Recover the amino acids of this structure.
């Protein structure tokens, strides 16, 4: 199943922190500048990441090995079905778990939980490989992986070093191309059929949610982060999910970008019929606590109507895969359908 098949599918579907391995030193820990700025927010290749990722894949029959995968950094040949997989971000973590595979190596995040809480019980035996921003190559090599899955956004400059450790497959970036990234992971793992079934089930669930909601409520997504406040837009995980369910967005969030940034003084820009909010980090550190205790929060229509809810950042903004997306749909159903 090759790239043409992948494009057809995407169109049809609308589509326990463990200590570092002993002996790892600073010389094998990368810095936070290992990614590719061209595919970051505002970069030249940001908005086309979904359509470009849809071109990647393999021409091998489903489940058959050896196979050669075309991906963001070229081609990678896998002689047999991978058994020891290392993932470099939360999206890849969600993807491989959704395909029934437990990775041997995972990164930690700088959010409120080092490992996304909704997946933590499934990776309690996995070893940490540093953080998403600072990978430890020695830790990765010590795990003797037979496949590494990551992205250009996070680790483009490390690709050659990673590929020398084990066959490495890169997407362009995590986030809004999560469905395309999931299909690419499925092909690398020889789980194309399961990937298709999973995305079809997701879209059925999203469509059912949209059909069951009365009226046309407008949904605002507010995330407090250290030194910034974001309103998440169409080029985000949750933005894609809301679009797939046919749910309305405020004009300032109905844009082809990851997010729009606002200041604490402009908090009223977050208003809508419903507000779902969270923090990347603790509420005290991100400004969430101060904002919710301030005068502007009480002026918001959604707050006055008891339709502003704090959600799980691990799922809504770090999930980046079908398991997280399915949980978000469940959350939305619980909030929006009485």
């Amino acid at each position: 199943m090759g790239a043409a098949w992948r494009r057809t599918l995407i169109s049809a579907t609308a589509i326990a922190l463990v200590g570092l391995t002993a002996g790892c030193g600073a010389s094998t820990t990368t810095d936070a500048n290992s990614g590719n700025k061209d595919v970051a927010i505002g970069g030249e290749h940001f908005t086309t990441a979904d359509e470009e990722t849809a071109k990647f894949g393999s021409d091998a029959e489903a489940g058959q090995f050896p196979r050669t995968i075309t991906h963001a950094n070229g081609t990678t040949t896998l002689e047999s079905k991978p058994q020891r997989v290392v993932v470099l971000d939360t999206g890849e973590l969600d993807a491989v778990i959704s395909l029934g595979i437990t990775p041997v190596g995972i990164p930690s995040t700088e959010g409120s939980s080092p490992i996304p809480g909704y997946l933590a019980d499934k990776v309690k035996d996995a070893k940490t490989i540093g953080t998403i921003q600072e990978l430890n190559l020695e830790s990765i090599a010590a795990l003797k992986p037979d496949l590494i899955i990551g992205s250009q956004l996070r680790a483009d400059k490390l690709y050659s070093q990673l590929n020398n450790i084990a066959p490495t497959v890169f997407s362009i970036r995590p986030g809004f191309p999560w469905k395309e990234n999931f299909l690419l992971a499925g092909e690398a793992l020889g789980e194309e059929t399961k990937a298709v079934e999973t995305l079809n089930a997701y879209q059925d669930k999203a469509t059912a949610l949209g059909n069951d909601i009365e009226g046309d409520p407008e949904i605002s997504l507010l995330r407090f982060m250290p030194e910034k406040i974001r309103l998440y837009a169409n080029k985000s995980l949750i933005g894609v999910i809301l679009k797939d369910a046919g749910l309305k967005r405020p004009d300032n969030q109905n844009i082809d970008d990851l997010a729009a940034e606002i200041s604490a003084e402009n908090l009223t820009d977050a208003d809508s019929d419903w507000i779902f909010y969270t923090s990347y980090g603790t509420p005290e550190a991100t400004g969430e606590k101060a904002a919710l205790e301030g005068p502007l929060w009480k002026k918001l229509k959604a707050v006055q109507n008891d339709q502003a809810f704090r959600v799980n950042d691990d799922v809504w903004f770090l999930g980046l895969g079908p398991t997280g997306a399915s949980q978000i749909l469940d959350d939305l159903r619980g909030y929006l359908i009485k």
User: Anything to note?
Assistant: Residues 215-336 form a domain with the Rossmann fold fold (CATH 3.40.50.1980). The chain has two domains: 48-190, 215-336.
